[in-house]
Amino acid sequence: MRAMVYRGPYKVAVEEKDIPSVEHPNDAIVRVTLGAICGSDLHLYHGLIPDTRVGTTFGHEFIGVVEEVGPSVQNLKVGDRVMVPFNVYCGSCYFCARGLYSNCHNVNPNATAIGGIYGYSHSCGGYDGGQSEFVRVPFADVGPSLIPDWMSDEDAVLLTDALPTGYFGAQLGDISEGDTVIVLGAGPVGLFAAASPWLMGAGRVIVVDHLDYRLAKAREFAHAETYNFAEHRDIILELKKATDYLGADVVIDAVGAEADGSFLQHVAGAKLKLQGGSPIALNWALAAVRKGGTVSVLGAYGPAPTGIKFGDAMNKGLTIRANQCPVKRQWPRLFEHLRNGYLRPSELVTHRIPLEHIAEGYHLFSGKLDGIIKPLVVPGAS
């Protein structure tokens, strides 16, 4: 089969790999019909995630058709059209029993730190991902779900990570009616995080980024007020002015380790890897939220120590909530939001890239070129 293969930082290719086989009675093999490149895939591409091994296939956002099932699989059959959440999870451990699928204790040798994720390094279990023609899906009765007939493929693939993660960020904010919510980052997850607070009663949503075309999309898609931090000497002062010098009730960090905004922190974190990424977005979140407010963290950071202003968090009495999204837990409510027309995730799709050209897709996405917001990956397209 054809599959994207990691060859080192900033180097990916498409090569022949063996078609995966059923290794356990609970496995399924899924033929991928549509995948995506996630902003967090860029952390892998840039060499920031520990134990990302040469030869690995990335891709934790994908849908497809069931090609084969193990003898114990009860809920899927060959030919089913399925969406697969990015979490690999067992469904029966202490954490899964509480709906914390992203914290599953049985699918990753590093489970005390993180659960299993498709295509996201051996730090996350070493599972090959969906930027390929076929994927092995463990615990096939637990994670995948049938795609409803009324749902398009492009909406479905964005329900495997980007939309649920953005929505989860707003949930972690525990938003009350009339709250002011600031979202740092206008990538796909940030845009979904900005659209979601309205469904929870927010009174204002403000998005901060430095790319004008993404801020324009935030105004159009999420009906948000926007600030380009590159146009202000002190973005925190501007945000304080905009919130009566109190700060926002909730701030969502949808940026993570590769944040711009501080040359020194970006070089130390994202380039020299002296810390677990640039802490600038998270420190802005701690500064921009009001005393007693909530900071929700969706952005990914590495395991190395990072210069977070934790003393500010303590002195302001903040609540900080963070986790990888338990995707399937979000689906019932998100399905209803799609059916009712409140959310149209495919509106963020800007590029449809054939698998054979995925190296160009990573180049465009990494460089924020050609107005790119959300690139999909199409196996078999020319």
Automatic annotation (TrEMBL):
Taxonomic path: Bacteria, Bacillati, Actinomycetota, Actinomycetes, Micrococcales
Example of a GO MF term: oxidoreductase activity
Family stated for the protein in its record: Belongs to the zinc-containing alcohol dehydrogenase family.
PROSITE patterns: ADH_ZINC (PS00059)
Cofactor(s) required, per the database record: Zn(2+)
Domain named Alcohol dehydrogenase-like N-terminal: residues: 25-142
Name of this protein: Alcohol dehydrogenase
Pfam families named in the record: ADH_N, ADH_zinc_N
Native species: Sinomonas atrocyanea
Keyword annotations of the record: Metal-binding, Oxidoreductase, Zinc
Domain Alcohol dehydrogenase-like C-terminal: 188-259
